[in-house]
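User: My collaborator and I are trying to settle a disagreement about how two of our proteins should look. Neither of us wants to argue from intuition anymore, so we agreed to look at predicted structures for both before our next call. Could you fold the first one, then the second, and keep them clearly separated?

Assistant: That sounds like a sensible way to settle it. I'll keep them separate. The first protein:
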Amino acid sequence: TTEIYTLSLHDALPICGPAAMAMRGLTVFIADLRNCSTKEQEEKRVDKEMAHIRSKFTSETHMNGYQRKKYVWKILYMYMLGYEVDFGHMEAVNLVSSPKYSEKSVGYAWCALMLREGDELLRLIINSIRSDLIGKQDNAVSLALHAICNVGGKEFAEALSGDVLKLLTGNLTKTYVRKKSALTTLRLYRKTEGLLPADEWAEKILALLDEKNIGVLTSVASLVLGILQNGTEGWEAAAPKAARTLTRLVLNKDYSNDYLYYGIPTPWLQIKLLRMLQFFPPPEEHALKMRVSEVLQRIVAGTDVTKNVNKNNSTHAVLFEAIQLVIHMGPTCEQLPQACNLLGRFISIREANIRYLGLETMARLSQQQPDTMEQLKKHQSTILFSLKDPDISIRRRALDLVYSMCDTSSVKETVSELLTFLTSADVSIKEELVLKIAILAERFNPDHEWYVDVVLQLIKLAGDQVSEEIWYRVIQIITNQGDELQRYATETVWRALAAEKLPHRTLVKVAGYVLGEFGT
């Protein structure tokens, strides 16, 4: 799922709709531009309007708020069409400090579109933004939070973070303002190191995970995840709170129907909470461990495939995050066998996205939980078949999985299948495939003669993709392994060279060294 931490421009600009269109001059101007039949006509109309607005800004010293916001809207519209705008900044700044919400929102719209981090004009509006943050008008507070999120920057963080944190943790803050302040805090946290020291803020911020409002919980979960990505020390209390909230949502079904998405309760929040648990070691406390296990069992066992695409997407998003947590919990997790069986089923589904996620998760499972290898090998034929999938991303994930599953007992079969695949593989994947075959053949080789045969076959099938490191390595092994291997290599290389009318230059290099050194 895609996570969006900054607030949308649409939310920041409630005036963009019918109220903006109530300005007749703006409506006529937009209609004129839309009616232009050529680009030249449009540019001529834009130039005329810009000249008109410039003259108004310079000649009229007592321009009222209505006129100012109308002209700023026109400037913004021209800017969004791609025209360069280098005037009107002070008029927009004045709108930000206006006591009227309709004018203030236009000024903030200009800030969101025109200002960037480090812009000198930011200093002119910081005081106005701070006045709105500490004011009593919740709509103005929301506009200020939107501006901070959209523009960001260290300057905003240093000047305004204290006021934003007061809104986040204050007892009297309205719910919708608290949601916005949580995301704004995350934006500032990413710009300023040390903004949220654990000893000062962990208890206050994690207390918000006990909120009843699902919207606040989702925003705070995003903030906590952003913090945990930089380190978990001092934030250990997030794990039991995440488990408790998951129990409330998944087991107790304590949520409003407003947060049901195709019958799935708050899938985005579930995903965030499951991911939060993966930042900490598997729980040792029995009660917490059982709570997490029950939640995972309900998610893993209760997922069905339906004909509704949106419902499938949400259920599978939660399910795959739950499987990631199962893998993280370790070999003692009771849901591990179920997860293996589910992944085996997913990699054979026609839906490409599900196959991709199944292969990717299975590769992670094979690397982190080697004890599951025997279960995964039951699906080896399906995995090898995925190497022929039309989708290059699925072929890459299948190759990664085959590579991670290979061991001494299966290396000959695996390398044989990969060599067969090499004959028809795309150029985009050949170099990676050759390298993986060479590594597997050397790491798990049952005998050195077989290893020599594999490298020579690699040169024959994909000589251009065989790097110098690969044939250097086979020469090194031949040199260090004694007379018997040297004799075998000499005969094999001679036959390979004789069988080719135009042998590849890499084969010539290998043959030149082997025959020159050992061909007596």
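The second protein, kept apart from the first:
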Amino acid sequence: MPDWLARRSIWIVGAVVVLVILVMAGLPLIASTQIVRDRIAFQMSAWSGYRVKLNNPPEIHVWPTFRAVLSDVTLLDWNEAEPKTVLAAERVEMDLSALAALRGDVVFTRMRLVRPVLRLTERNEKLRLPAPQDWGRLNRSVETARDAVSKAPTDPDTSGLPGDTFGTIEFEQGRVIADDGNQQTNIVTSLSGSLEWPALNRQVALLASGIWHGESVSLTASSTQPLILLGGGRAPLTFSLQAAPANVSFTGSASLAGDNFIDGQLKIAAPSLAGLIDWTHALSLPTNSVGPVELSARIVGDVRRLKFEDTALNIAGSSGNGLIDVSFSAGDPLVAGTLAFDTLNLPALIQAFSPISTGPTNAEGLSQSIGGGDFDFDLRFSAANATFGNATLTNVAAAAKVNDELATFDISDATAFGGTIQFGVRADRTEGRETVELRMVGERIDLSRLAAALGRERLVPQAPCTFSLALKGPGADLQSVLRSGSGTVSASLGPGTISGLNLDAFFEHSAAGEFFPLSAIEEGSLPIDGAEFKASITKGVAGLETAVARSGAYTISLDGLVPLAGRALALYGRISESAEDEASEEAPLSFFVGGSWSAPFIAPLTNYR
């Protein structure tokens, strides 16, 4: 290389280095004079449409990036009389364009908010962000998109959308609160993440984590046409939410303006349905033992109505398919639909929708089991097979209806226990008092199989039976209804046996003339040719009208009172030879049955032999 060319190159490189040094040295001075507090506030206001208040002058840093650091930053609405805070941050860090700064402009490339607090107004149980001014750059961009959507709703022209550079907004340890004018309530806490939006006409991506309703939540969302999405048009949208109570994902299209239309594939997985409902505060169930749930469906609709098409539902091990429709009309939202199951876990279904609890009474009574004041239900279920403990039911048809004043759960038809069975429970509070009706009808039922499914096998006849039960009374759980209800119960049994009753042993102990426990004669069984039973129930006590069993040459009858929910027994019985045995001269044996259901005793009143 010639010497003169080398010297020129050195001078050029030296000049560039000197220029860079001068710019680096002079940039703080230029920034301190041209990028002043008002200019930064103006640009933030121009973007957001809110009034921006900087309580302290910005700190300018040149290395390693050119940035401004502001403390105590507040965005307010434009109410002159009483401005309200929309967003407040303890600290805001902004990466700025150095070249724009030399021109006297402010161009943000990245903004980091430290401990920001976003305040939403709450009116009529709805949360809203105070409206910004129309001249805000974001608001004007959304209006441009709205105009494009209005001209061509299904295929808007995106070529005219603004392409202003936006950049990245990061936030750390933030909060979202609701302000109803009287008090402020935390909605989300420990909120951290970022919003990446390179330009207004390009894809936006949100990544956030925080605490909602006491659980850590991670959220990701993105859209390739964010302005169209905000402007009321349909645009692609994906989001994923992960938390301990549930994982939720959606892929499809949506509109975040107007009626908030949505159309796409939704998936939900939760380890506990009751836990998910309790976490979201969506509604109340009468039990907290409903197991894991998975749902996959195409969701289509808007704020007035949502349809879950091609629904695949797995709840507590039961898999079903069908259609669910959620309508948001006047009053509580209504969840309606039809689901068909191959195999249905019947106890889980009863726990979820029965209007009374089979466990202890909760503090809030029946109100926890009738809709919870949040959702109404009108659901139909069918199952080729259903399980109830160790028992199997087939061809099951069930329905559940729930609203604020009335709740019903019905198994209108099922083949089970060798026959057919129907079951229904209705809880009504239309008259200001919680009243429950229970009914159960069975035809040609094998009582031993039914008793085994219910875990009540002792002293239950092993015989075909047709029975009916109707009971009505106040109460919030089964025990309360049994203690207070009134109604009727009847049964007709065919030939069979009663385990735990030995008639010969009964005679032997009776001959001694002293009372004895029923357990003393439980070895063996009592064969019966048939039996009839009928009782009237008044305030939880069954008064026997007919209770007769025929066993060979003997007829066994009972009379007295049986409390349904209590443990005491007070029955009188007699054993006599059948009228057909004309040669018999024996007097009937009379006896008293006392004690409790779990440990009854027999007291002979007359000697039989």
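Some points you might bring to the call about the second protein. The two ends are 139 Å apart (CA to CA). The first helix runs from residue 3 to 34.
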